[in-house]
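Page 47, continued from p. 46.
Same chain as before, 137 aa.
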Amino acid sequence: MNDSYRKRPHTKAFTLIELLVVIVIITVLSVVALPRFLNLQSDSRIAIFNGAQSQFQSAITFAHSKWLVNGGGNSEMNDLPGFGEDTNGNPQLDINDEGYPLGVDKNSPMGAPYNIGKGHQGCVAIWDAIMNTVLTV
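Result:
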């Protein structure tokens, strides 16, 4: 009975060299791959910016098209119909004589003294008027 405890079956295991090789390979892969994965956050920010820029450009083009459809010509247009409406459904986007957004509520400066797109408040107002519009024909 004593002999049965002494004879153990031969087990296979990794040698120390094999384990070190695997650790070195994993280290090299992580050094190569880690910077790429860390760069994903800046890539996503760039993609978000590009999406907003594309949306803004499309909205400007659409506002110009609405200006042409509404008889644009070479004249300014206050409160472009069907585009840039406020929460009550009133048009507020004003267009210059070239057909591009100039500001909001330009014809009523007492109600909106930031009306021509100047300064932080004016930029935010024109951004909201352009970007918060559903682009429909």
